[in-house]
Automatic annotation (TrEMBL):
Keywords: Signal
One of the Pfam families matching this protein, by short name: NPCBM_assoc
Signal peptide boundaries: 1-23
InterPro entries: A-galactase_NEW3, Class_I_gatase-like, GlcNAc_PI_deacetylase-related, LmbE-like_dom_sf
Annotated protein name in UniProt: NPCBM-associated, NEW3 domain of alpha-galactosidase
Domain called Alpha-galactosidase NEW3: residue spans: 394-456
Gene3D superfamilies: 3.40.50.880, LmbE-like (3.40.50.10320)
Amino acid sequence: MKRFMAVIMSVLLTSALMVPASAQEQKASEKPKDLWSALKPLDTIISFLNTGAHPDDERSDLLAYLSRGKGVRTASLIANRGEGGQNEIGNELGNALGIIRSRELIEASKVTGVTVYHLSRKPSDEIYDFGFSKSKEETLAKWGEQTAYERVIRMIRTYRPDIVMPSFLDVDTEHGHHRTMNYLTVKAYQDAADPSVFPEQLKEGLKPWAIKKLYLPSDQKNATTSFEIGMMDDVYGKTYPQIGEESRFLHKSQGMGQDIPAAPRTINLKLEKSRVGTPGKEQTLFDQIPYDFKEYAGTVNDKRVKKNLVKLQEEFEGMIEEYPNRAAIAEDVYPAIKQTEKLEKLVKNSSLPTETKSDLLFRLDRKEKQLMDLAAEASKIDVRVDLNQPVLVQGGSARVTVTVQNNGKQTLKHVMPALHLPTGWKQVGHVPKTKLKRGQSQKFTYGIKVAKNASYYQPYDPSVISASISYKVHGTTAQKTYEPEQTAAVLPDVSVKNDPESLVVNTADLKDSIQVKVEAKNNTAGKETAVLHLNAPEGWNVTNNDQEITFQKKGEVQNATFTVDLPHSVKEDDYTLKPEVRVNGKQLSTSVQDISYPHIGTFYYLYDAGTKATAFPLHFDAGKKIGYVESGFDSVSDKLRAVGMNVVSLEKGKLESADLSQFDTIVVGIRAYLSREDLLQNNSKLLDFVKNGGHLVVQYHKPEDKWEAEKSAPYKLVIGSPSIRWRVTDENAKVTVTKPEHPLFNTPNKITDSDWDHWVQERGLYYTSDWDDHFETFVSMADPGEKPFTGGILMADYGKGSYLYTNLVWYRQIQNNVPGGYRIFTNLIDYSKEQ
């Protein structure tokens, strides 16, 4: 009967949506959401896996319906960390952005009640977001098809889903990463059940797993399964699409989430493959799959097992009917735990077929864990794990306090925390078991000693410290594991970071020396003395090396500036200036980037310290004054200043009052029309600057970045949509300069084919699809086999000045020290109509 409730609910949807939102919210506020989210999973034994490529690829509305609405054990398997994307909340890119996006996905999935898994295991993993791709062939080549596929199979055999659905189709209008995850998911449907595929996994204890159904996204015409998810949930006071959007708001770095009204929404899916019947029209997503233990009992021959499965499910149903009576549920959950444990023993000792026994034991184990979570929630047991210092060092010490508060009505007996620490770490002290009556709390304090060879913090690993709390109620033992409120991180005794981390050695105007500042931060408990050393390339001389620094306390930062004398001539190449700190008998050279935002918390990115120095000739007019309208999404202005250009940042609030006539050129940062309301208000002022003889360079924008095709530029300029079709993703795509004699390619730098070499990630994003005849085109480029784009650089005279729009990804090139990126962009901003 339960499987047909979705059909019934769709009939009731219209009347449910007629209830005012305020009434729904008031009704929902009377029902404890946390209790329901722990209770509802007892309703079914079905599991569902959604696969995607990037954080934010999850089908949030559907997952909210399955998890929150139906109680289905639901997970997302995401390939990479989104490192190649853009960032709308800061300037972190690459691995640092990947950490942000991974944490955003975890926080978003807490809203929908979904467990998150990734194929990517560490920063700079093989399965990396290398930017937009138009083909799965390119993606598989870069990820390594065998590596990616082994991890997909491993995850399926670990999670053991009944139903699997990729978020996207394998069609040529889709992102290559999306197509790849579809391809791997569909292929894995058959191979995950085949013991000859990756047999080494079986030796590790995994078992082949036969997915029951594989669904693909579909339109209504081709769907075999269509169901309504737009109904209002009485507990949450929202529809499932609204819950999904609530979760998507947490993908802040990607600008996700929108307020949507309560409205019908139909999910259309196509049953692509099935082991439980012939693919065809279905009444529900769950047809032919045992929905709960009662239906599962119908598939087993052992009478005792059958009887106890039915009895257990009836216990679950009884608790669900008791909601929202917390006290009643708290009384019933502990006998249900004991009953589940007894049933597990019965199954182990039964004569059921091996495959059935393995499957049933797995489902019972999952259900026991859900009961443990429900017990802690129903009994209102609040646990907090705190560290006196979350930043740890090898061989260091810390104190862990576990606070257990009994806010329920039952007495908790034999309350005992157990710390879980990595191998080689030591727990200092022993805490006896205790009893907690209603309203009582107890603090358990432990000392810990970090192993001298402890691994440094890895942002995608589970917490190095956790605590499980075990207790007894009515003679039944229950337990649950908790992680610290703060991020526990083993960091180097002293971390070092160069400033700058990249620089240009201009061989066209070679200086006698350069300066590098090294910032050192003490992560040890107290006073420390260290020596800073800067390793330089052969022939480069550090005149004031081996500087001693002294720290007085943990967290203190000390700086040392090194002068590096350059040789009389420097070959065009990349060089590294590597800092090293000598402390406590160690030689350390690791940078630590703190990543902290209110919606995700604080995390760290550890990487090899150093300065990348790139030597090449760069000509520019140091007398020209350049204004830069900052968007917050790039650091190009800093890079231009560092090479000696006279760049003034026009930050928020400065544009309206600034005298723009002082500038020769004004540059607008990427997507500034999105992030700068004052830019929208003063756009006419910028156009007047051009009309009066100035040169304006505008970098790329998305169509939705408040860009107005008829107003933002002096003449019509349309940004292509959908964006997937208007980009060149191959960073090595051939570029044809159509007007090589133009000053843009001759002054002040003579541009050659080599200036288009060694680009990173892509050539251009969000190409223009249409423009006024006043605009002149200069370059042509395309991904292999595609029609070339000619609008990568567009320029038009306007009044006495000139307006240039370019969607090429200069910021990635400049921020990665690509010589040609610097040289061509310098020409673009150096241009004047008088040339």
